[in-house]
Design brief:
The structure holds two protein chains of two kinds.
Chain A lengths: L5 E10 L2 E11 L4 E5 L6 H9 L6 E6 L16 E4 L11 H11 L4 H10 L15 H12 L6 E5 L7 H16 L3 E6 L11 E6 L2 E6 L1 H8 L3 E6 L4 H4 L15 E3 L4 H9 L6 E5 L3 H17 L1
Chain B lengths: L1 H16 L2 H19 L12 H24 L4 H6 L1 H6 L5 H35 L2 H31 L3 H29 L6 H8 L3 H10 L10 H7 L4 H25 L3
Classes of the chains: A alpha/beta, B mainly alpha.
Pfam family, one (chain B): ABC2_membrane_2
GO molecular function (chain B): ABC-type transporter activity
Keywords (chain B): Membrane, Transmembrane, Transmembrane helix
Chain lengths: 304, 272
């Protein structure tokens, strides 16, 4: 097994009294897509800056491609890293092509690659126009094109889908999947959760600079032990009379059974034995619920 | 080096696109040609004034204009990019902070240098054809080279400002104050010192004090060679104890290199 592409060991950073990031340990393997979730000020951007080598850790170590990213030796690795910042407004008075050519040149590429990338993100038609005439979505696409320069081995994307319409979002995730299959690793930072689940291998949840949970979605679900919601149709209240099932009913949602993951199959079989059943809806806890769960747990833990 | 040139090229083209180059060149050309032709108007004649009068008037003009233009051109170089987020992005590129700073300096410095050369050069050519005196070209070369150094010095100073503040509007404010201090207040203070404090300061001491202001060094460079009848104020005193042209140029050059080095130092320690 090769060494991880990115590894943080007890890495933390403090500004004066404020701990922007408490000790975080994480590893990112090649070809892995990691989702980084947390609300504003949770330390997502700080962590990205650490990995990018723009800031140095106050304690612990950060390694990217086997080197400390803030060191001089890591210099040549930088052209292998793509970054999309959260808030960036590119040089408004330049055209899209000029902006991208500038960034491409700084990474050692030329105008031709810039044109290809603009085509890839679908703004070829506007490349001769000044950036100030671009819509939010077009700016975001330009930013993505910038991050994709030179087929990076590591991509750090801060809120990549903000301002993108559904089709552009789909195209974006397609590109992420493609990069992943080419062996690139991606760190996706987001607080917009729906849609991201099937594209990430693992998720990290941060809050106030602290790592709350990390793992695959299945692992997180297990840790959170959130119930599965099963909604039967056509039973006309016979669930209430079923002694095996009525314990899963709650007052808030009288038609839905909230079942722990390990009981799921048992309950389903029981439901299927009811003659009147004509439809079933099974919803496992989604990323958003898992996220909420960990945040709530953290907050209630802090209050104590 | 390639990185520096890429940045420089972008900054230079920004200067072209924003019409900075063309407007500065035009301002310099119009004013200097105007002064060359009508400089003698005060003495009742229209026509080319004497070389020393022309250079003296041009120097007094340039000493106000060039710092102002350089500060205006560059005050938002870093704080502007910081506000728009591109500074952070650029620093994740294989581009060091000193490369970025030097690239910007070369790009924006070229704008100032080219505008100075073209703007004041035009009146040098004009004056040369009128007077046919080779002295015109030598005097103007000194004038233009020192004017360029003055511009570069204030470009470097504006980087200091741009890197030290966190908001564009603050940078603009500080740029204006800096201009006021160097172009106006410093001389007034010197004059006050000279007049107000009896025997308070020697001529040599005064000249040394003037080394603390690039605008004054620029004046000394250009006026020390002229008839002192065209020069007055604190300068006239200083000129009598003047340093050599070489020393003055060295001092002016130091006023470019020093702020630039400090700017790099600040940039390297700056947290983003």
């Amino acid at each position: 097994m090769s060494t991880p592409l990115v590894s943080l060991t007890d890495a933390g950073i403090s500004y004066q009294q404020l701990d922007a990031l408490k000790s975080v340990t994480m590893h990112l393997n090649q070809g892995e897509v990691m989702g980084l979730f947390g609300h504003n000020g949770a330390g997502k951007t700080t962590m990205m800056k650490l990995i990018l080598g723009v800031i140095s850790p106050s304690r612990g170590t950060v390694e990217v491609m086997g080197m400390a990213p803030d060191s001089k030796e890591a210099w040549h690795c930088r052209s292998k890293v793509g970054y999309l910042p959260e808030n960036v407004s590119f040089y408004e008075q330049l055209t899209g092509l000029e902006v991208l050519t500038y960034f491409a040149k700084l990474k050692g590429f030329n105008k031709k690659q810039a044109i290809d990338l603009l085509e890839q993100v679908g703004i070829t038609h506007a490349m001769k126009r000044q950036v100030k005439t671009y819509s939010k979505g077009m700016r975001q696409r330009l930013g993505l094109a910038q991050a994709f320069i030179g087929e990076p081995k590591l991509l750090l994307l801060d809120e990549p889908t903000v301002g993108l319409d559904p089709i552009a979002t789909r195209d974006f995730y397609k590109t992420v999947d493609q990069l992943k299959s080419n062996g690139s690793s991606v760190i996706l930072c987001s607080h917009v959760l729906p849609g991201v689940e099937q594209h990430i291998d693992r998720a990290m949840i941060l809050s106030t600079g602290q790592l709350l949970a990390m793992g695959t979605l299945a692992q997180l679900r297990q840790q959170a032990a959130l119930p599965v919601a099963i909604k039967p149709f056509g039973l006309n209240g016979s669930v209430v009379n079923d002694s095996k099932l009525n314990s899963f009913l709650t007052a808030n949602c009288p038609n839905t059974l909230l079942v722990p993951e390990q009981e799921k199959m048992k309950v389903l079989k029981q439901l299927l034995s009811h003659e009147g059943l004509d439809d079933l809806q099974v919803e496992t806890a989604n990323l958003e619920q898992v996220y909420q769960h960990f945040l709530l747990k953290h907050e209630s833990g802090e209050k104590k | 080096m390639r990185q520096i040139l890429t940045v420089a090229n972008k900054e230079f083209h920004d200067g072209l696109r924003n019409r900075w180059l063309i407007s500065i060149t035009l301002i310099f050309a119009l004013l200097s040609i105007g002064l060359t032709y009508f400089g003698a108007a005060a003495s009742g004649a229209v026509g080319v004034a004497s070389l020393s009068t022309t250079v003296a008037s041009l120097a007094s003009l340039a000493v106000f204009l060039i710092p102002l233009i350089a500060l205006l051109l560059s005050y938002d170089s870093f704080v502007g990019e910081q506000e728009s987020g591109t500074l952070l992005l650029l620093l994740t590129y294989p581009l060091s902070k000193s490369q970025l700073l030097l690239g910007k300096f070369i790009g924006q410095g070229s704008i100032i240098a080219l505008a100075t050369l073209l703007g004041f050069g035009s009146s040098a050519v004009l004056l040369y054809f009128q007077l046919g005196d080779i002295q015109v070209l030598t005097s103007f070369s000194v004038f233009i080279v020192s004017a360029i150094l003055l511009g570069l010095s204030f470009t470097a100073i504006s980087y200091l400002i741009s890197l030290s503040v966190s908001e564009k509007s603050k940078a603009a404010g500080f740029a204006l104050i800096t201009w006021f201090l160097f172009a106006l207040a410093f001389d007034l203070a010197l004059l006050a010192l000279l007049v107000g404090v009896e025997q308070g300061i020697t001529q040599a001491g005064l000249t040394q004090l003037m080394m603390l202001n690039p605008a004054d060094i620029f004046r000394l460079v250009n006026l020390s060679g002229l008839d002192s009848s065209d020069v007055n104020g604190a300068l006239a005193v200083a000129i009598n104890a003047s340093l050599s042209q070489g020393q003055l140029f060295t001092a002016l050059f130091a006023w470019v290199a020093l702020p630039l080095s400090i700017a790099i130092f600040i940039f390297k320690r700056k947290k983003l």
